[in-house]
Amino acid sequence: MRPETREQYRIAVFALPATLFMLVMMAIPLGSVVWQSISDDTGLSLAAYAKIVQSNLFIRVTRTTLEIALGATLVAFFLGYPIAYFLAKQSTKRQTIWLIVILIPFWTSSLVKSFAFVVMLGHAGILNTFLGELGLGPYKMLFNRIGVMVGMSHFLVPFMVFPILTNLRSQPPELAKAAAIMGAGKFRIFRTVTFPLSLPGVVSGALLVFILALGFFIVPKLLGGRQDVMLSSLVDFYAREVFDFQMSSAIAVILMATALLAAFLLSKVRGGASILSKESS
Questions:
Q1: Residue 230 contacts residue 249 (beta carbons within 8 Å)
Q2: Checking DSSP bridges between strand 39-40 and strand 43-44, what pairing results, if any?
Q3: pTM for the whole structure
Q4: Rg of the chain (C-alpha set)
Q5: pLDDT under 70: residue ranges of the chain
């Protein structure tokens, strides 16, 4: 046996446990959801998908889901890009410290953080109390789109920061120096050199954030209002309230297909394939 073949077999043996784990824990359950969405007591049936297409509720909730996901992506971009740009200018030691700070949102669960935002954003919450001391407010920031955006952005900003930061750190510093020698100011260097080169990282981060935002459940449920129902809430409604598992599975499949489509687009973006563990185009 050639050494190359022996090495391939050795890698396959090490990858086998992870492959079996993914098959049992993800592929089989997802496959059962897909099968349940196209079958009922009589056999194969696309009744759930036909009902979804004809449902005004589904169309409205789908539009709301896309609006919230796109809105959260834009907020994450406007908050995340300055943070990534600031970190790219820091030394390695300071970057490490700031990255730990950025990762703080992951130290607690979304449920705990959502209840914390209820305390902060409520009518008599910390933020409105502070604004009241300044003679402002109170403002309604809870159980509406504002609360949803705040809660989701708090979790999603790091996913926007890291792809952009990786891109900014990989840019050759000689380009900015050459532009400065030619007489370009700092803003012009950013506008004509730094930002255009960072667009692959921006698009990768945006699609990654969008995919994650599509499946949010706890934050819209606790911080949103009746106008902020997302597809994940419909899955929960049909599964736990109506006990229509075919319908809930069909909605879950559509939600999963939307996320897979976004992931496919991500793999086609220069620099985005690395997030999906593929070679960059």
A1: no
A2: antiparallel
A3: 0.83
A4: 23
A5: 1, 266-267, 269-281
